[in-house]
Automatic annotation (TrEMBL):
Organism of origin: Rhododendron molle (Chinese azalea)
Name under which the protein is recorded: Uncharacterized protein
Recorded superkingdom: Eukaryota
Amino acid sequence: MEGRTDEKRRMKILCLHGFRTSGSFLEKQISKWEPSIFHHHFDMEFPDGRYPAGGKSDIEGIFPPPYFEWFQFEKDFTVYTNLEECISYLCEYMTSKGPFDGLLGFSQGATLSALLLGYQAQGKVLKDHPPIKLFVSISGSKFRDPSICEIAYKDPIKVRSVHFIGAKDWLRLPSEDLAASFHNPLIIRHPQGHTVPRLDEDAVEKLRGWTKEILSNDRDNGGAKIENGNLHKAACKILVEQSGDPMVKTEAGVAETTQA
């Protein structure tokens, strides 16, 4: 019958790509993972960044353009532009196209996702969006600006999270620091660099157990219901001062993720 509101829906994950790549490229990167971990259980969306790439992309000649970035930065990585506009854009995207149950991100996308989670926990953004339940961080990091840190990472973020940390990643230590900002995080280490890694059997089993528990909790809580119409579009205006962060370095090693 049309108009039913009690129909169970699949959980939904918003996936944010790395600097000067694209949603399609992140989708290709994730496709190397065993489908039974995420794709069989979740609906995953891979939008493009808010702005066209303002310079050369590391994946030119590897994956077709266009390429995008979520916000811009200066060469010393201490000044950001369009960060506030990007956050407002993503808040509107999530409230109008959601609700989303989780966030997944690589590098710039992971760092941005963690910021949204921290701000939501502190009541700064996504006030009319249900609390995010899960987070997958691949080579993510924290913003370093004190005006951001004292809000976003003020308290341990109580979102179920898994953090991929590469032994050869130039963001290894910042990724460790980000994981420490979450309550009871699952950390999966791999021997590769700044990339979406291939998963060995141990990693696959850990991830399967992690997603199985999340799905089980969702069922036990009655599951998510399809709502009639769109969610109310809430204003997501926040004041974010320009900040510094090491994550916006050339994303070396991304090429190795293109192999099937």
